[in-house]
Write a structure and sequence with these properties.
Layout (H helix, E strand, L loop, with lengths): L2 H6 L11 E4 L2 E4 H23 L6 H24 L2 H4 L18 H19 L3 H26 L13 E3 L2 E2 L12 E2 L7 E3 L2 H23 L5 H20 L6 E2 L3 E2 H19 L9 H7 L21 H12 L2
Antiparallel strand pairs: 1-2, 3-6, 4-5, 7-8
Helix pairs in contact: 2-3, 2-6, 3-5, 6-7, 6-8, 7-8, 8-9
Amino acid sequence: MGPVLTTSVLAYLPSPDRGVWHLGPVPLRAYALFIIAGIVVAIWWGEKRLVARGGPAGTVVDVAVWAVPFGLIGGRLYHLATDWRTYFGPGGDPVDALKIWEGGLGIWGAIALGAVGAWIGCRRRRIPLPLFADAVAPGIIVAQAIGRLGNYFNQELYGGPTTLPWGLEIYERVDPATGASDPLGGVAVDTANPIAIVHPTFLYELLWNLAVAALIVWADRRFRLGRGRVFALYVAGYTLGRFFIELMRTDPATRVFGDIRINVVVSAVLFLAAVAYVALVRGPRETVPPEAFVLAGVEPPGEPDPSDESDPSETVDAGERKTDDSPDRAP
């Protein structure tokens, strides 16, 4: 390890000694818990934003019933397509492809297939999909930030070696029962002597995501964005940061065009497409059709309350009543 590392190691960021805890036979995985927490935050914030944009309460929860499962499946499929050798190549175990709780969700696949689920849910609730997308965009990227904490507990998705004060300590983890190496489910054996000090790229992305969330909320309020432009701005902001952060990562990845990580290429393409969308699409914010409120079991805004049984025709302006009555009192 060397004396330089051991004398300066206190300046670095420690990793958790494990990412899994057991309640009897039940494993509690940090990665899964943070994914769930991110989904809850995205739904809660998206619901508040959709109601503020004129939508009926409960819509985001109903649409999420379709969007979340589709998104999880899409995220896993993208991960398997771009890292298939890990599961189906030499030494791989195809059964591990089903172990989504151990990590491995590609955001591009999650957004793509999640959008299909959202489209189904929005059609059922008669909500314009761009309106829904704009409402949930900030919550989605905050959910991504929360999910990156799961990568922290898994000791994954980090960058190359560094001597910066915020370098991340990586520990050797083993199965306590067998002593065999187990980076995901094991426990650190010696936290005083990390096996590497690396760039915490998960932390860089987490902070970038929170900054993008703040940016799109500000832009939405300042320019009253609609027609899916809030969502497109989220895509542009996220992919801009992901492009550079991806270049720093050292974990195995599918390479294209020689030796370029595939997510670098995808980030560049999506960034250009999102910027073009923001620049070209115009128009005011969408309005929610009345049938959306009927399906939600609430009255559309501006409609009279049916519980009010008073006859509007009985309400007469005082000045008009005086004028109407004056001939009857004339001598």
